[in-house]
Specification:
This protein has 5 helices and 15 strands. By secondary structure, the chain is α+β, with helices and mostly antiparallel strands. The strands form 5 sheets. A 4-stranded mixed sheet has the order 2-1-10-9.
Length: about 280
């Protein structure tokens, strides 16, 4: 592996058309860690997070909201989710919830079903999975990765949107301190392969660029749709797609952020803000 700097002797990834030795001249570190204790609700930012047995981060998507049919109540299906503000303390099992025209809730997560049902206008319940949570991608269930440069660049495509809002729209777990837009695209290659990389002592496999749903097109506070978001995004993504955005994943251009998997050997490792990112080889999946 390398720290992303070019070297004379690391040529395997380049020979395969991949990531390793060409991942930029500047060292890259982990800038921010976000966990989303309740799927589709607000992030909590932490300085360190353990990797659990499915490769996710401890506490991430540990809870999810379900309707009576057992379907997720999430941003993909329920726009009203965006108007909920939440703050969760997993250490003591409490949550603060607020929303327009609702009294605030401050109490046990286990007792929040009534507030949520009243808000949505139909019965819902919170379910918990402490062993690995409810990941969006069960095949690549590691934390999602993006860079600061990407957030800045994509935010600039839309009037009135800054990098903070774009992060809230895209909902990554890990933000890397890389100023070059789309740096994280070094972390995937063509279908049937993965890119080996590490953050601190934890090994990762970069699997694919995340296929986006409707959620990024909406204002994260109101749920209102940004006009022409998808069309603008896809046009600009194609125009700015760097040469290292590899392989055959771009059957369409509504893809951004990297889905990952974590080898079992790194379950139990701890990620910390400031950890160095090292990029390795492209290998068969």
């Amino acid at each position: 592996m390398t720290d992303g700097s070019p070297t004379d002797d690391n040529t395997s990834a380049v020979a395969e058309g991949g990531a390793g030795a060409t991942a930029g001249a500047a060292a890259v570190t982990l800038d921010r860690i976000a966990i989303y204790p309740v799927k589709s609700l607000d992030a909590e930012f932490v300085d360190a997070a353990d990797i659990v047995e499915n490769g996710g981060l401890r506490g991430d998507r540990e809870y999810a909201i379900f309707d009576e049919d057992g379907e997720y109540v999430n941003g993909k299906r329920e726009r009203a989710v965006h108007r909920i503000q939440s703050s969760v303390s997993l250490a003591d099992g409490t949550v603060e919830l607020s929303a327009p025209e609702m009294d605030d809730y401050d109490g046990s997560i286990d007792d929040a079903d009534g507030w949520l049902s009243a808000y949505f206008g139909y019965p819902v319940e919170l379910r918990r999975d402490p062993a690995g949570g409810f990941p969006d991608d069960t095949e690549a269930s590691g934390p999602t990765v993006i860079s600061t440069g990407t957030l800045e660049a994509v935010a600039s495509w839309f009037d009135g949107v800054d990098a903070v809002e774009m992060r809230r729209r895209l909902r990554p777990n890990l933000v890397l301190d890389a100023t070059e837009p789309f740096w994280e695209d070094h972390l995937f290659d063509r279908r049937g392969t993965v890119v080996e990389f590490a953050i601190g002592a934890a090994a990762f496999e970069g699997v694919n660029p995340c296929q986006r749903c409707v959620v990024p097109s909406r204002d994260p506070d109101t749920g209102e749709v940004t006009p022409d978001f998808r069309t603008t995004f896809m046009t600009k993504r194609r125009e700015t797609l760097p040469e290292w955005s590899g392989g055959d994943w771009f059957d369409h251009d509504f893809r951004l952020m990297v889905n990952t998997a974590v080898p079992e050997s790194s379950w139990g490792e701890t990620l910390s803000v400031g950890d160095a990112v090292t990029v390795g080889d492209v290998v068969p999946e």
